[in-house]
């Protein structure tokens, strides 16, 4: 073997080892357990992790990996070949054997233009990193211009409701700005009133309130799974759910994923892990991009077959969808979430329902339902992020409690108006020829545009039409399926909807041909 060949083989081996280390670090696996011939998505790498991996490898080897190639979720063998095909600095091979997550000295320095072309492109989106200097309903002032807000998730308009705003000051005068006790020691009385009010609305035995959904997941999911249990998560579940599953795995549980919406894969995975002491299926209730509802009855049937419980994060569904849907009220009534929407029972169907107040109720808190007193006690005495966190701010307790009252008095009327606005926006976008996947007229509309270049162009046109929207592009979505997300609230107006449709019509006319998906 020639010296050149031996050197090439050594370099290739070093590249392979480094890539396996980085992938292993993302998956919390020893590098030698990372398969070379399995696509990255089958290994469990999601699109956000793929973006991190791409940035890490580009820095480590001083190369620029093709975005299209990465988006295909290559195998590790293909990824090694991809790295070798790119021109790179001779110095970049130094330090390849460094520990995972050690970055080579090729990071972008402060003030420099980002090296990653995708990052450069995303910086051209005008709807990012903006400062709002005034707000009048859903009319915002940004850089001296009036911009219509379609990026807020305050679905019911409770953030601007005068009765809710007026309820905050009296409670702050009584309880101060923020109690400093940990919940393990004491909580202000309004905390328990909020938990009781939520349990009454949901029809559950009880609820336990946490400061945020992310903290709730980290405290509750590992506890439910226990050592020797299984947390089986939908691949498309929210990132905070996967992080909580990873923590559960660190504490002795098995963490696995099933393909999004694939009930056969779910069934097969549960069969494969039937020896686990506890089984927890982890899903979202309403998916924030597609606005599709989880088919809860089908999941309950599979869970019952395998003696599993369902842990559902309904952050976007709570407050909007509810019990007894009808043609006149497609969302249903009372806004008590996806479990009630399908007429299911928390205890009998073994459903742990989680949501937050930060969307429809415009308050910073989260809650979880309990089957019975024993489960409530287990959470209050065992969930670390409950025990060691302080109570939420008093303003949140006040706005949450008053929000429950406003929901009783005005909720049906608010939701009916919200549905009318959303229906017009969905129908108008479809009439313009955009692919829209929103069969329920839920107040989140994702308008698919196409590749990142087209998404940037569409965002710029939307900004020119005075629209604040949420951009959605790779790596959060597949590279050719990016778009704009419009969030409709009760404080948007019919004039706002028509302005949005005029902006979409301009996007349809002017976005680069061949990039807008028809």
What do these coordinates show?
The protein has helices spanning 3-27, 40-43, 47-61, 67-71, 76-85, 117-122, 162-175, 189-202, 213-225, 239-250, 263-272, 296-305, 337-341, 373-382, 384-387, 394-431, 452-464, 494-510; strands spanning 134-136, 139-142, 145-149, 206-210, 230-234, 254-258, 279-284, 309-313, 351-356, 366-370, 444-450, 467-468, 470-472, 482-487. The chain is an alpha/beta fold. The chain folds into three domains: 3-112, Non-ribosomal Peptide Synthetase Peptidyl Carrier Protein, Chain A (Orthogonal Bundle), CATH 1.10.1200; 124-158 and 410-510, Aspartate Aminotransferase, domain 1 (Alpha-Beta Complex); 179-392, Aspartate Aminotransferase, domain 2 (3-Layer(aba) Sandwich), CATH 3.40.640. It has a seven-stranded mixed sheet with strand order 4-10-9-8-7-5-6, with helices on both faces. Strands 1-2-3-12 form a four-stranded mixed sheet. A three-stranded antiparallel sheet has the order 11-14-13. A hairpin with a 2-residue loop joins β1 (134-136) and β2. The N and C termini lie far apart (55 Å).
